[in-house]
Amino acid sequence: MDEKDLVEGMREYISLLQKEGRYSSAKSYQDAMNSFIRYSGTDRIPYTSITKDTLRRYEAYLLEKGCMRNTVSTYIRRLRCIYNKAVENGEAAFIPSLFKGVFTGVESQRKKSLPLGDLNRLMTVPVKGEKLRKTQLALCLMFQYGGMSFVDFAHLNRGNIKNGILDYNRQKTGTSMRLEVLDTAEAMYKELAGERAGNSGYLFPFLSGTKNGHEAYLEYNAALSRFNRNLKTLKEVVGITSDVTSYTARHSFATLICLSNGVPIETISKMMGHYSIRTTQIYAEITNHKVSRDLETLS
């Protein structure tokens, strides 16, 4: 068997993802590749060097660097995907349980939803300045739109809302979503949308609608980064110490409104537009962990 190179395999796969327009996935593999190159000290990494011991040391290296366990899992799963493809192509040897013993799961103990009081303050406390006001409006609408993700919210266009019905397809999974827009959201919707140009393509002022392909992906990432920075400023202004990100409205809607009120998990999965019910179950695990912790505190 000829000596093949892991980095070469990753670069080829990254190139394929980019050609398919899967820029987010391509970046994830690029990040994993860069990380493993830094660990290895070289970009010449033959598949024969990928051993159980190497993977365990790499995992320890990432944890020592302060990486979250989910980040560790993502990087190792990206390596596993490329290695498995090499095995299928006869470029690497099949080694039973090669990736067993390193973390490739999902850490669901980290709480991402806000307490109801903090969420209320974040969405109702008067703020100064157009930037913070628009950030606050966006957060309110994302929550009222069934815990909509920022990527879906930023890509909404005028045609998605008709006669009080919000109808769109999720950017991540393509799942068709349809829900009634509450009357309380109408004034906020009009204020945030403002006088958007008819040919801008998008309803809200986050994307220009003039970019395509990789440039559109870069523009979206920049918009997401700005939104998260503005959320951090907003939560400091209203006096909240908990972390607040673009996921806050989504996680808070799922845990505070749905799970806490006994909505069946299958129904929540449909409401959130999850591709797999396992994704929804992560919310339930987070909530159950919090309930158990609160009971321990009371006992």
Low-confidence sequence ranges? 273-299
Strand content: under 5%
The residue fraction in helices comes out at 55-70%
Helix-strand pattern, N to C?
Answer: HHHHHHHEEEHHHHH
Large-scale geometry: elongated
Quote the average pLDDT: 83
- Read across the widest sheet, the strand sequence of neighbours is 1-2-3
N/C terminus separation: 62 Å
Radius of gyration: 22 Å
Per DSSP E runs of 2 or more residues, the count of β-strands stands at 3
Number of helices: 12
Give the structural class. Answer: mainly alpha
- Major sheet size, sense and barrel closure: 3 strands, antiparallel
Report on this structure.
The chain is mainly alpha-helical. Helices cover 57% and strands 4% of the residues. It is built from 12 helices and 3 strands. It has helices at residues 6-19, 23-40, 52-64, 69-88, 116-124, 130-144, 150-154, 183-193, 213-237, 248-258, 265-272, 277-298, and strands at 161-162, 165-169, 176-180. A 3-stranded antiparallel β-sheet has the order 1-2-3, with no helix packed on it. A hairpin with a 2-residue loop joins strand 1 (161-162) and strand 2 (165-169). Helix 1 (6-19) crosses helix 4 (69-88). The longest helix has 25 residues, at 213-237. 27% of the residues are buried. Residues 273-299 have low confidence and may be disordered.
